[in-house]
Write a structure and sequence with these properties.
Helix content is about 35%, strand content about 15%. The protein is an alpha/beta fold. The chain has 3 domains: about 120 residues, Fumarate Reductase Iron-sulfur Protein, Chain B, domain 2 (Orthogonal Bundle); about 160 residues, 3-Layer(bba) Sandwich (FAD/NAD(P)-binding domain); about 160 residues, FAD/NAD(P)-binding domain. The strands form 4 sheets. It has a 5-stranded parallel beta sheet, with helices on both faces. It has a 5-stranded parallel beta sheet with strand order 6-14-7-8-9. Strand 10 and strand 11 form a beta hairpin.
């Protein structure tokens, strides 16, 4: 490494953010760029460790120590080449990934880990500013055609890789714009859509065709794809939301997160959603049920819309501030985290189970909940029980359900294809990423279940290898 003693000389720096009072007044990116000199020092913290566990922590297998060292040495062009060797879209992961690589950093055993995610984002930003990121269409075409259903990170990564192998690629997206959750699930303040559009333009110039308003199994028959394409990849994601089946759930003013978030994203895109159809938190008492990333996305959106108050409830206990004994390095640290949205306000509460909604004239007005605790059932498994006398009520005007997803939607495409499902309801695949239907492959959340963007990109790349091998008998794709 360029600075063998860097981890002893420099401490981990914090991600710079725009001031809260400024950023909640707009929808722009909340993070600020890092000064180059700071990033060089952060890169110098990367140790010359014998076994870089960050490799196993990253589903993409990013060659992290190499590009940390290259940033320290100001060799940015080599750094982006090394980064792109394993990651198609570092501008997405550098912004949105929770960085499991940092949880596996060897330095994290007894110190703060290297700021891997920040360095990754700085490399790709620097490369775009320098004009190094240009379209790379294949030199030859194979004559084979591949359909990819779903334009989220798994579908886009697979599309680029399959296209690089020389096959003609068409991506089908049921929404009116390309991007999947990157477009309509991730709020603008977490990733401005110009970042997505910039990459999509490159993919188009590389020869990839995109079709929007194309709902396979609904307005595009499955048999059309089977007859017109040599292979199909299912990358539609895990889009079936987990519901809260309690009395009063049918009242107006209670919405799934993915009913709420896309409407604001559409407004940020310039769409004119009628007021009667737009879900807003302005002036309302809001409760978000679910303490994960989707709940935090709702929280940041609620702040910017001008809510009167907001509570975020989580059923599980509050995570510890440091690793628990049963959560050792290099496992992902299950610890208490504060996102940029949490820094902006709101009340977080844990071990809360919502039991009922009530209201008047068909609209929600009150929420009833109890506090719970988790105790051993005698076999070492935690079981939940209500704490006597802990029931409470509160007035609400808007409730957002952000409790995760149960798997892919079965009706339509999956039923028509007749693909085998796993016990969890996801699409089954073999070791080559092919489903039970020959020539039909799957990747991302549709087969894995709700997961991270970095897993989606990694699986899209691996599925592309399976498709290329199926079509050509072998593959040279990485």
């Amino acid at each position: 490494m360029g600075k063998p003693t860097g981890f002893l000389e420099f401490t981990r720096a914090k991600q710079p953010y725009r001031p809260v009072e400024e950023r909640i007044r707009d929808w722009k990116q909340v993070m600020l760029p890092w000064p180059v000199e700071t990033l060089q020092k952060q890169g110098a913290r990367c140790m010359d460790c014998a076994v870089p566990f960050c490799h196993q922590g990253c589903p993409l297998g990013n060659i992290i120590p190499d590009w940390n060292d290259l940033v320290y040495r100001k060799r940015w062009r080599e750094a982006i080449d090394r980064l792109h060797a394993t990651n198609n879209f570092p501008e997405f992961t550098g912004t949105l990934c929770p960085a499991p690589c940092e949880g596996s950093c060897v330095l994290g055993i007894n110190d703060d880990p290297v700021t891997i995610k920040a360095i990754e984002l700085a490399i790709i930003d620097h490369a775009f500013e320098a004009g190094w990121i240009t379209p790379e269409p294949p030199l030859t075409r194979t004559g084979k055609k591949v359909a990819i259903v779903g334009s989220g990170p798994a579908g886009l990564a697979a599309a680029q890789q399959v296209n690089r192998a020389g096959h003609r690629v068409t991506v089908f997206e049921r929404a009116d714009r390309i991007g999947g959750l990157l477009r309509y699930g991730i709020p603008e303040f977490k990733m401005e859509k110009r970042v997505l559009d910039r990459r999509l333009e490159l993919l188009r110039k590389e020869g990839i065709t995109f079709r929007v308003n194309a709902n396979v199994g609904v307005n595009i028959p499955v048999e059309t794809l089977r007859s017109e394409f040599d292979a199909i990849l299912l990358a539609g994601g895990s889009t079936l939301p987990r519901d809260l089946k309690v009395p009063g759930r049918e009242l107006r003013g209670i919405h799934f997160a993915m009913e709420y978030l896309p409407l604001q994203n559409r407004r940020c895109e310039g769409d004119q959603t009628p007021e009667g159809e737009f879900i807003t938190a302005k002036g309302k008492r809001v409760v978000i049920i679910g303490g994960g990333d989707t709940g935090a996305d709702c929280l940041g959106t609620v702040h910017r819309q001008g809510a009167a108050s907001v509570h975020q409830f989580e059923l599980l206990p509050m995570p510890p501030k440091e690793r628990a004994p049963d959560n050792p390095w290099p496992l992902w640290p299950n610890i208490f985290r504060t996102s940029s949205a949490h820094q902006e306000g709101g009340i977080r509460d844990y071990c809360i189970s919502t039991t009922r909604f009530s209201g008047r004239d068909g609209r929600v007005e009150r929420l009833r909940a109890v506090r719970v605790e988790f105790v051993s059932d005698g076999n070492g498994r935690p079981t939940m029980r209500e704490i006597p006398g802990s029931a409470f009520e509160m007035e609400v005007d808007l409730v957002l359900l952000a409790m995760g997803f149960l798997g892919p939607e079965r009706n339509g495409m999956l039923d028509q294809l007749g693909v085998k499902l796993t016990e969890r309801g996801n699409v089954w695949r073999d070791e080559n990423w092919m489903t039970s239907v020959p020539g039909v492959f799957t990747a991302g959340d549709m087969q894995r279940g709700q997961s991270l963007i970095v897993w989606a990109i990694a699986e899209g790349r691996q599925a592309a290898r399976g498709i290329d091998r199926y079509l050509m008998g072998s593959t040279s794709l990485p």
